[in-house]
Amino acid sequence: MKRDRPASATDIPLLDIDRMSMRFGGLIAVSDLDLDVPEGNIVSLIGPNGAGKTTAFNCVSGIYSPTSGSVRFEGHRLTQSFGPGVFWTALAIGLVVGLFTAAAAVDVDRLWLAVVKRGMAIDEPFTLETVRRRLRGYFRAELAIDQMAGKWRVVSADGRDVLAIRRDLADARSLRNQLQAAVTARRAGPGTIPDATDMAGAASPSQPQALISDDLLDRLAAGKARVRFRGWAGLLAGGLLGAAGTIAIWRRGRRSPHVVARAGISRTFQNIRLFSNMTVLENVLVGLDRAIPGGALAMLFRTPANRRGEEEARARAVEALQFVGLAEAANRIAGQLPYGDQRRLEIARALATGARLILLDEPAAGMNPTETTELAQLIRSIRDRGVTVLLIEHHMNMVMRISDRVAVLDHGVKIADGTPADVKRNRRVIEAYLGGEA
Q1: What tens digit of pLDDT does each residue of 416-436 get?
Q2: Which of 339, 335, 316 is nearest to 327 (CA)?
Q3: Domain boundaries, the chain
Q4: What is the radius of gyration, based on Cα positions, of the chain?
Q5: 15-80+256-433 adopts what CATH topology?
Q6: CA–CA distances in Å: residue 274 to residues 267, 286, 315, 337, 366
Q7: Least CB-packed of 157, 166, 364, 416 within 10 Å?
């Protein structure tokens, strides 16, 4: 039961699990778990197989998001806040997606034809200014000129309608201007004042040298509104979709393992998860990659900050290996280590991250009595160097010997929590975990 009185700063546990539940469909793996892990303690979480211990670890470490309840570390929720970086990232991705959607909405093939191919046909240089002008002409549905079979064609902006064919480019341009004037006049309509974009580039009205049916003229006059509507609609829809998708991905990842690791929590796994073909030192360095500044670009250009970061990471990795007694095996292949040393290597990788809380999931599994005794001493040493330990373990002798507190789960429900001596005398623990034997 949580205390109702206000907690002072010294009362706040390092890890505070409050009424945390985890459901998988109709299966309740963890139910309303309350657990405090004080700083500088070794707290063990025990229980029969299937009691929900590893599921609780997965919720704390960000692999699962709890169905309900909360997990707080140093008084703060283990979630990534919505900051300016997330906002501007969502805005940028939304803009890019919107531009691509707008290009698709106005027909990418015809947009390429208008912006690139026609310029090649008339030997016009491909510059930013010409691209800007062709894009503007396309979205204003201006008539254009392209070439086919050695002849010049006056066509609609999207190339669907061929209005006239001329052998001479100058004649084609003159006719194009006359036809554009007719289209602009029809677009503006009688008794209206056309806007600047309607009149831009249009010749003075004159009798066109080619006949255009009224239906075709109406369709060409309506093209500006149609193309612009598709473009703006595509930009808006794509922008909203891109931004919403970015926010959705952020929401799913706001409590991901890397967020938890950055907060200061690291863990090992019940099944060893090493890179068996990499060296011992490289396995520890993998856990320190996030601590090297600059990202991929700094690594590519080998900036001074990146080189200093790699040197510092290597020093931290060597120090962690020395702490667990694997410094001499730093250049060995990890898969060639004895089983017990592989367990130690996982612990070294977790410690090298600088975590203040380390979660150990059955670290003594598969070890012989001598290795178990050495591991118990190592866990005490971890606590003595200021790192808090939350432990899952089935070796009861080790648990009772090294733990400051023990919590017991049974079918996802906490049935006991206290000192090792109190837990050993608890009747519910004896019945559920020790088979009813006193």
Answers
A1: 999 999 988 888 888 775 555
A2: 316
A3: 15-80+256-433, 86-245
A4: 35
A5: Rossmann fold (3.40.50)
A6: 13, 10, 20, 11, 16
A7: 166
